[in-house]
Write a structure and sequence with these properties.
With 1458 residues, the protein is of the alpha+beta class. Helix content is 31%, strand content 21%. Helix 21 (1058-1066) packs antiparallel against helix 22 (1072-1090) and helix 28 (1235-1258) packs parallel to helix 35 (1411-1422).
């Protein structure tokens, strides 16, 4: 019956959906059909199908036992397992024991009667073929992905699960689990047993290195099992040990083969296959479609070999799902693979090369046409978004097919070859696209810029008509015409597809002077000579127009339904009379042929109406979809129909010659072979293209419509019975198209009613019958049924009957017949009699049902009884409706209120009961809504009662502040107090939740600007503080604004953003003194960095007046200059800018005491405060305050440990080394009358001399570098502070410089003050005694607490822990061997404190440098400087002897005092 055919694509993502038997017969599951392919010859051939499953085939397996290898089993997602005879193509038995979709099935290689299947819920079933019995097990509550039976032990089955678990079960022991193999962490795609029993073949290569124990390799020693998983690894397992012995990681291979659609996302699918006779070789799939042969005895890259490496293009180019192997009788060992690229490949296992490739189709075949120029070149338009071009006459490869997908991206629904240009193929798509491919090049197609709104159904090449025909001389002689579902025919210029296509309707209307709207067009066909064109319409009319003006010649009004196809007879036949034959097919299943020669030879002046056909071809039972005239015969036509058959006709004789029934669905396209007069090609809904011979068909006529319908109804009834309580995807083999990723939709213009004929032949279909045309039409119209298989058939589910409102009276109608007849007599007596029968009260008791037929009083009685019954049953909603019907609206509302079942409907009819009832109902409904947490709806109903404040309180109590505020602002005055309360409450909640900006807006709206600014400032970052300050200033909160601006400026100054800090302060009034302070701080910071005393910092911004070019020698002069220029502050300033006012304001700023933990930038800020006060005091003429503030400015960095910064600041303040002169630009000698001022000046001068002393001593050391305390000046302040409490003392002997100094440039006698030496000695003695007392207290507390261990060494003398000592008394200088008592130490402490109290307060307030230290430095300096006089040296030595009593000082002074 059939020659060659292209089957549907194998189903994707199934563990075992293909298998091959020993005779070389391959079974492949595609959609809901199993295709049988003979692979034993040099090229493959499809030999049949197994049709019967109602859903996707998910598993397939052959019986591999001799004498039974023609029997096979298939499983489906419809839950069924079917046994087939592949020779007879018939069903043997069906099992439907699985409650859910079956995911895997396998026929045991050991027992010829055992079949094992598993489903998605984890149920494993064993089927006994010879008896038909089944048994189920449930080893694991997991979803099964694959399973395989052992080839060595009949009872062993390996099951792979979705979560990566592998379980070995024993089916002879009710599914007992023998091993659980854990190692994969994702889906198990495939399992394969080793063909060799035992575990000796790989023992030397296992992962754990364990050798066998020398026992015999029988079945009890197990067998190796291979598994492939989504985790991209292949594992080899020992089933004897229940553990993994080898892991193979997939190699990354560069993608090979032709390009594929990049829009399809790939995933890994790892299939493994262990060929028979190859125990050390394993086949696995890889990334992107490669196949790999693993040698399990080797390691490294030598372990695997790639299939198809001998030449390019042999491999699959998408992932491979299934592999199976067979050894043919001639000794060839073949491997069959199926892939996502929709190709089935055959491989030679000996050479790893590809033997042949069978392309498959992944969608409905919408178009099929032979090239009129290229002999035997067949183009296929498929719903899988690709075009195939098949060289059907190729002798080397019977399936020489090329695929084209670029630029398509939708179902290909129409094709047309150029009549003269070879290789030029036009195509139309489901989304309205029209394009032209050059099939002999690799270029992408040309796409027309004019798109149809709906599916393109027909393409045709014809002569150009206006406007393209204007000036067409010498131009291209063909235009491309496209007809689509919206009923429009467009003319495209093939040489300029980017131009706009023209609608021929305009030309038709203009030429024929038509004013009305034309009927939508559905098809067109140009006569081969290009003189006329036939256009079919939606109303069944066929119009013939004369080119090029498209003058209407005639209108054929024969069909009454949509025209699906039109074909002109070819013109190369011997009879010219046949050249005018036009065949037409529509949705009424009858083919009409009209002879239009007379009209074309003598065109009429006005259109002619044709109502009688030349020939009428009857026989099809469903719509006509396609037709083709035989190019080899005269008057021979083939038609394709929705009845699933193709019919060959002798048109002149009106006889049926041959009927082809090889498809399993309706047909959509047909064409006659251009080289063989006996061969026809067809394609249709079953995803297949089939080649068949007319002379070899069994039937001559289509199947009879009535009997076919009966068969389909019977089949459908069987499907309903078997799929009861189970979702189904359709009837009669209709499968969800999920299998190849394509949706199945038919042609829109074919979606009309079917005209079923009852008076045709008696032939009926064979066992693989088609589905009902009506059913397929219904499926085509329902997009949901065509897109998913999970949605259940609504017709198969019984609708739930609604509950009766009158159950008691209804139940009375189900009594015996005699009682029902008596009711009629009773009712007649009640209706027509003067008095009812005795004991009969309609609507009560046994006559309750008669209340419906008697008067209203009886009806009310019946209602009362029905209400009581509903109340007992808890059906209160029915009671409510009964009361509504009876007019008791208030009672209905009361019941609904009590039950909490009020609704919008009841509330809408409540006003009918009066205002009071309605208002009470609304209030009750509000309470009900609050219980249901529908607060907004409840507030809206309160508004209907004009209870606005209650609605606001309701919203506020449930934290719906936003809605409450909106309601108040919309309905109440702006000064309503409740609005401010709402804003304040909402702000508090927002502030608590951290939504500070929103809270600030609430405070602003409530008129609380102060609170708004405070809330914004809570984040305490610069932007928030700046905003808060601006907010407070705008709102009139000046004090708060200044405070916030000052905080922001300090943060900016700390971040070295001096410009930003000044901008913030300048935006507020009354902050001039702080601007002056920051100016001094910036100047001090920049100057110290320029002096390299402070490491450069990453300044954000600085002012131009801080540039080094404007630096002056004295920092105070520079400050005065900047103040006058930038801030207009001078001695002449008045008002709030006067010097006295600014100084008074600045003195109000508290300055903390210096600490050693302060950061340098904080130290400089505090020092700059005193420096600012000093300049203001200078401008005010107060010399005493000036010198005291200068002393504080210098003391801050010194007391904080930043000695180098203090020294550099002294140099900047007193350039001449004289503290009485602080300015060169404004020379003035400072005079001090107060004791504090004198003491401060003396202290400052002493520290100046102290710094000069060190400079003189270390000058010339370290190659002439300036050094402070043994450190280079640039590095002396590299840390946060200088850890130099006594800069002149070190633990090592200090060698003096060899450079000779002629004289000192300062008065060194200031450093040798005996009064300060005595004060410092007393202070050191007090500190020493305090340390000794603290040690004694600590020792005592430890002894009291039992913490002093017997072996712990105690301090001999707590006083020795102090490094400094020395006082004016010899009994303190000498350490007594006896330990001092607490009393003696206390008395000494009192004595020294009394001495300190007698000293002047200014001496302690303004101290001098360490006198002992200065004595040592002077004596060292005397060795290199003759300027140190003998008297000065002697004075230093005397002070050392008297006050230098500490061990370190004694050691350092030994060389001078001996």
């Amino acid at each position: 019956m059939r020659e060659r055919s292209l089957p549907a694509s194998p189903n994707w993502y199934c563990s075992r959906c293909s298998d091959v038997n020993n005779n070389g017969l391959l079974g492949v599951g595609a959609k809901n059909v199993v295709y049988l392919i003979d692979v034993s010859a040099s090229s493959c051939r499809v030999v049949g199908e197994l049709v019967g499953h109602r859903d996707l085939v998910s598993g397939f397996s052959f019986c591999q036992h001799a004498g039974q290898n023609h029997v096979c089993v298939s499983a489906s997602t419809d839950g069924s397992v079917r046994f087939w005879d592949s020779e007879k193509k018939t069903l043997i038995r069906e099992h439907t024991a699985h409650p859910t979709p079956v995911s895997a099935v396998h026929w045991s290689p050991v027992d010829k009667n055992l079949v094992v299947s598993g489903d998605e819920k984890g149920v494993v079933l064993i089927h006994w073929f010879h008896t038909g019995d089944t048994a189920s097990f449930f080893p694991e509550p997991r979803s099964i992905f694959c399973l395989t039976c052992s080839p060595h032990t009949w009872s062993s089955v390996a099951v792979g699960y979705k979560d990566g678990m592998i379980v070995l079960i024993d089916v002879s022991k009710k599914g007992e689990v023998m091993h659980r193999l854990r190692g994969h962490d994702n889906e198990i795609h495939s399992l394969a047993w080793s063909p060799l029993a035992g575990e000796d073949s790989l023992c030397s290569k296992t992962e754990d290195g364990e050798a066998t124990n020398g026992e015999s390799t029988g079945e009890e020693n197990g067998c190796y099992l291979a598994s492939g998983s989504k985790d991209q690894t292949v594992k080899i397992w020992s089933t004897a040990k229940g553990k993994g012995v080898m892991t193979l990681k997939l190699p990354y291979l560069k993608r090979r083969g032709s390009a594929v659609d990049p829009g399809v996302k790939e995933r890994i699918w790892l299939n493994v296959h262990w060929p028979n006779g190859r125990p050390t070789q394993l086949v696995s799939t890889c990334f992107s479609g490669e196949l790999v042969m693993w040698d399990l005895t080797k390691a490294g890259k030598q372990r695997w070999s790639l299939f198809g490496a001998s030449s390019e293009g042999q491999n699959h180019n998408r992932i491979v799902f299934n592999t199976s192997s067979v050894v043919l009788q001639d000794g060839r060992e073949l491997l069959i693979s199926t892939s996502m690229d929709r190709e089935i490949k055959c491989w030679d296992l000996s050479s790893l090369s590809c033997c042949w490739t069978l392309p498959t189709l992944g969608g409905v075949i919408h178009a099929l046409t032979f090239s009129p120029v290229g002999s035997g070149c067949l183009a296929l338009g498929v719903a899988d978004n690709m075009i195939r071009v098949w060289s059907t006459l190729s002798t080397q490869n019977q399936y020489d097919i090329r695929s084209f997908w670029q630029g398509i991206k939708s179902k290909v629904t129409a094709l047309a070859w150029h009549p003269m240009k070879e290789g030029s193929l036009s195509f139309g798509t489901d989304d309205g696209k029209v394009g032209i491919y050059d099939v002999f090049s690799n270029k992408p197609p040309q796409i027309s810029s004019s798109y149809h709104k709906k599916t393109v159904y027909t393409l045709a090449w014809g002569p150009p008509v206006p406007p393209l025909s204007f000036g067409a001389a010498g131009k291209q002689s063909f235009s491309l015409y496209s007809c689509a579902g919206e009923g429009v025919i467009l003319q495209h210029d093939p040489s300029k597809l980017s131009g706009e296509a023209s609608d021929i309707d305009k030309l038709i209307k203009d030429t024929n002077n038509i004013k009305h709207k034309l009927s939508p067009h559905t098809d067109l066909s140009w006569k081969p000579d290009g003189k006329v064109v036939a256009i079919g319409n939606e109303d069944g009319c066929i119009d013939m127009y004369q080119a090029p003006s498209l003058k209407l010649l005639c209108s054929i009004q024969q069909h009454h339904k949509i025209i699906n196809t039109l074909r002109w007879h070819h013109e190369h036949g011997p009879s010219p009379k046949l050249h005018g034959l036009l065949a037409s097919g529509s949705s009424n299943a009858i083919v009409f042929v009209h002879d239009l020669c007379a009209i074309m030879e003598n065109p009429p002046d006005s259109p002619v109406v044709v109502t009688e056909p030349f020939r009428r071809l009857c026989g099809h039972t469903a719509k006509i979809t396609s037709m083709a005239w035989s190019p080899h015969h005269s008057g021979r036509l083939v038609t394709a129909s929705y009845d699933g058959t193709a019919q060959v006709w002798d048109v002149l004789e009106e006889t049926a010659l041959s009927n082809y029934r090889g498809h399993a669905g309706y047909l959509l396209c047909v064409d006659w072979s251009p080289v063989d007069p006996d061969v026809i090609w067809t394609g249709g809904k079953d995803f297949t293209v089939q080649e068949w011979k007319v002379s070899q068909q069994e039937f001559t006529k289509p199947p009879k419509g009535k009997k076919m319908t009966m068969l389909q109804e019977k089949k459908k009834a069987g499907s309903k019975q078997k799929t009861k309580n189970r979702p189904a995807s359709g009837s009669g083999g209709a499968a969800a198209p999920k299998m190849n990723g394509e949706a199945i939709t038919g042609r829109e213009k074919l979606g009309m009613d079917l005209d079923m004929s009852d008076d045709d032949g008696d032939e009926v279909r064979s066992s693989n019958s088609l589905e009902s045309p009506a059913a397929t039409e219904m499926q085509r119209k329902s997009s949901s049924a065509a897109k998913t298989k999970e949605k259940p058939d609504l017709h198969l589910q019984k609708k739930k009957k609604p509950r009766s409102m009158l159950p008691l009276s209804t139940s009375m109608d189900h009594r015996p017949k005699e009682e029902l007849l008596q009711d009629c007599v009773t009712l007649a007596a009640v209706t027509h009699g003067s008095a009812p029968p005795a004991g009969c009260v309609p609507g009560q008791g046994d006559h309750i049902h008669l209340g419906l037929f008697a008067d209203r009083q009886a009806l009310y009685c019946m209602f009362a009884a029905e209400e009581e019954a509903h109340m007992e049953a808890g059906h209160y909603d029915s009671v409510v409706y009964l009361r509504l019907w009876s007019g008791d609206l208030e009672g209905a509302l009361q019941l609904a209120t009590e039950r909490g079942e009020l609704n919008d409907h009841l509330l809408s009819i409540a006003p009918m009961a009066g205002f009071n009832v309605w208002s009470q109902t609304v209030e009750a409904f509000v309470k009900q809504l609050c219980l249901q947490e529908q607060y907004l709806k409840a507030a809206s109903h309160l508004l209907s009662l004009n209870k606005l404040y209650e609605a606001v309180d309701l919203l506020r109590s449930h934290k719906l502040y936003r809605e409450a505020i909106a309601l108040v602002k919309a309905r109440l005055p702006a000064d309503e107090p409740v609005l401010k309360e709402l804003y304040t409450s909402w702000a508090a909640v927002l502030e608590k939740d951290g939504h500070l900006s929103a809270a600030a807006k609430c405070y602003l709206a409530a008129g609380s600007s102060f609170d708004a600014a405070k809330v914004v400032s809570r984040k305490n970052d610069v932007s928030s503080l700046r905003t808060a300050a601006g907010l407070a200033r705008i709102s009139g909160e000046d004090t708060l604004a200044q405070s916030l601006a000052l905080r922001c400026a300090k943060d900016l100054a700390a971040a070295q953003d001096w410009v930003g800090a000044q901008e913030v302060l300048s935006s507020q009034d009354g902050l001039l003194v702080h601007r002056l302070h920051l100016c001094v701080a910036e100047l001090l910071s920049v100057t110290l960095e320029a002096s390299e005393v402070v490491l450069p910092s990453s300044r954000v911004s600085t002012h131009q007046w801080m540039s080094p070019s404007r630096q002056l020698i004295n920092i105070l002069d520079r400050v005065r200059e900047i103040w006058e220029e930038e801030f207009a502050v001078s001695q002449k300033s008045e008002g709030h800018c006067s010097i006295a006012a600014l100084l008074q304001e600045l003195k109000s700023i508290e300055s903390p005491a210096p600490t050693s933990s302060a950061l340098l930038r904080q130290v400089l800020l505090y020092s700059s405060v005193h420096l600012t006060r000093a300049v203001l005091s200078w401008l005010l003429g107060d010399d005493g305050e000036l010198i005291k503030e200068l002393w504080q400015a210098v003391a801050w960095p010194r007391d904080s440990g930043h000695f180098c910064v203090s020294a550099e600041l002294c140099r900047l303040l007193f350039c001449d080394g004289d503290v009485s002169v602080c300015s060169r630009k404004h020379p003035k000698k400072l005079h001090h009358s107060e004791d504090e001022a004198k003491a401060a000046a003396s202290s400052l001068q002493a520290f100046l001399c102290y710094h000069r002393l060190y400079e003189s001593w270390w000058r010339g050391l370290a190659g002439g570098q300036e050094v402070q305390n043994g450190l280079h000046l640039s590095a002396a302040d590299s840390g946060p502070k200088d850890e130099v409490p006594n800069p002149g003392l070190t633990n090592q002997t200090v060698e003096p410089s060899t450079e000779r100094l002629d004289e000192l440039d300062f008065d060194a006698s200031l450093l040798l003050s005996e009064h300060h030496a005595a004060c410092q000695a007393a202070q050191k003695a007090v500190r020493e005694i305090q340390e000794r007392l603290a040690a004694m207290v600590l020792q005592h507390s430890r002894a009291q607490g039992g913490q002093l261990q017997s072996g712990e060494k105690e301090d001999d003398d707590p006083s020795q822990s102090s490094s400094s000592g020395g006082n004016s008394f010899e009994n303190i200088n000498k350490r007594s061997e006896d330990q001092d008592t607490l009393l003696s130490l206390s008395s000494k402490m009192s004595k020294y404190q009394e001495e300190l109290a007698n000293l002047p307060g200014t001496m302690k307030m303004y101290p001098h440098p360490d006198v002992v230290e200065c004595c040592l430095v002077l004596l060292h300096l005397s060795r290199s400087s003759p300027s140190v006089s003998d008297s000065l040296q002697q004075e230093a030595k005397d002070l050392l002897r008297k006050y230098g009593t500490s061990p370190s000082v004694l050691k350092a002074s030994r060389q001078f005092l001996t």
